[in-house]
Design brief:
Alpha-Beta Plaits, four-stranded antiparallel beta sheet, 40% helix, 11 helices, 2 domains, 377 residues, alpha+beta, six-stranded mixed beta sheet, binds alpha-D-galactopyranose
Length: 377
């Protein structure tokens, strides 16, 4: 990485920082409702090799995107920078907005988180950049504060109204654990997650149908939830208990608000049930909770796609104990919890189902919970 940096910029870097992509096990579209999420960090990471500059220039090179962008820090304004460069530029802008006197940086970006697959390559890029910039400029920023800053950059600079899950996962996850995050209090609990102990594997099926989160559908879901909370007189849908659901739904005037609310309330409940089963060492029994989440995202929240539904159905038909879409939806990935010895057959059957439906071949890999963002060199 260091040689690459020298090749690009003509001098040696100060260091390399890495931040992972994530998979959310369960708790989908709950984070902007102040609810609960349960992501794991992937072994796939974005790395940022970096050095400070004496002037106010930000030079960005991306190995994946194959591009080079040069910006003046004083010119950074929300909406002005587009494409991959908006994420690191947004982080630098956010640090300055928060009063940290940052100057220029040279950043070489590399990594293996598939972009556009719903695995949070953008959050990983933001978090790796934030770690690098904070350390290089002696800014005391770590953990949830760093995740919050990265989320702020994405909301305000990039213009994507996401919740905090992806950035929190990229920073706070630890190997061997899922991260139970209360997105209201930001209380984070590490829950041991070791499917191999029950001879199970977490299979990821990347449908390769690009997820399109910024195209308005995500923002529309978020607005519906906020509207429902206003009608119900609560700060957020997190405040609705599942015991109260029937009464609450009857109070909502529009069918759309009712289905969106039902998803969020039942999904928060499913996170709790899933975690209880993990803690009891009954991972296989947690499978149906995953599948119930998918059904709710498909029927009530309406964020799945034919590819996602086909992948879930084929995985279940091939013997998975549970399967669901993960991330924002409208494309992206499915996760399936499946006996180790059935993985290969499952992959074959999912491929065949995609072929029958005329979809492009999916990519698959197995994932073990990995570490959050850190300095690597
Ligand atoms: C995207 C967003 C997250 C979260 C998920 C859905 O990944 O970035 O904040 O809302 O969708 O759970």
């Amino acid at each position: 990485m260091s040689a690459d940096f020298r090749g690009e910029f003509g001098y040696s870097p100060a260091g390399t920082w890495a931040a992972p992509g994530r998979i959310n096990l369960i708790g989908e579209h709950t984070d902007y409702n102040d609810g609960f999420v349960l992501p794991i960090a992937l072994p796939h990471q974005v790395t940022v090799t970096a050095a400070r500059r004496d002037d106010d220039v930000l030079r960005l090179v991306s190995r994946q995107a194959g591009g080079r962008v040069e910006l003046r820090i004083d010119d950074l304004t929300p909406g002005r920078v587009t494409g991959w460069a908006a994420y690191p530029a947004g982080v630098v802008w956010a640090l300055r907005q928060r009063g940290h006197p940052l100057h220029g940086l040279d950043l070489l970006i590399d990594g293996d988180v598939p972009p556009g697959a719903g695995l949070s390559s953008s959050a990983a890029l933001e978090c790796a950049t934030a770690l690098a910039a904070a350390e290089l400029y002696d800014v005391d920023l770590a953990g949830r504060d760093l995740a919050e800053l990265a989320r702020y950059a994405e909301n305000e600079f990039v213009g994507m109204p996401c919740g905090v899950m992806d950035q929190a996962a990229s920073v706070l996850c630890t190997a061997g654990h899922a991260l139970l995050l209360d997105t209201r209090s930001m209380a984070a609990t590490q829950v041991p997650f070791d499917p191999a102990a029950e001879d199970l594997t977490l299979l990821v099926i990347d449908t390769r149908a690009p997820h399109r989160l910024v195209d308005g559908a995500y923002a529309a879901r978020r607005r519906s939830c906020e509207r429902a909370a206003v009608v119900l007189g609560v700060p957020a849908l997190r405040d609705i208990g599942s015991d109260d659901l029937d009464r609450v739904l009857a109070a909502l005037p529009e069918p759309e608000l009712r289905t969106r609310t039902r998803h969020v309330v039942t999904e928060n409940d499913r996170v709790e049930r899933f975690v209880a089963l993990l803690r009891a060492g009954r991972i296989a029994e947690a499978g149906p909770v995953l599948t119930a989440s998918h059904v709710s995202l498909r029927d009530d929240y309406e964020v799945t796609s034919p590819e996602l539904d086909t992948a879930v159905e084929a995985a279940l038909a091939a013997g998975a104990v549970g399967a669901r879409m993960t991330g924002g939806g409208f494309g992206g990935c499915v996760i399936a919890l499946i006996a180790r010895q059935r993985v290969e057959q499952c992959v074959t059957e999912v491929r065949q189902a995609f072929e029958r439906s005329g979809f492009a071949a999916p990519a698959t890999f197995t994932a073990a919970p990995s570490d959050g963002a850190h300095r690597v060199a």
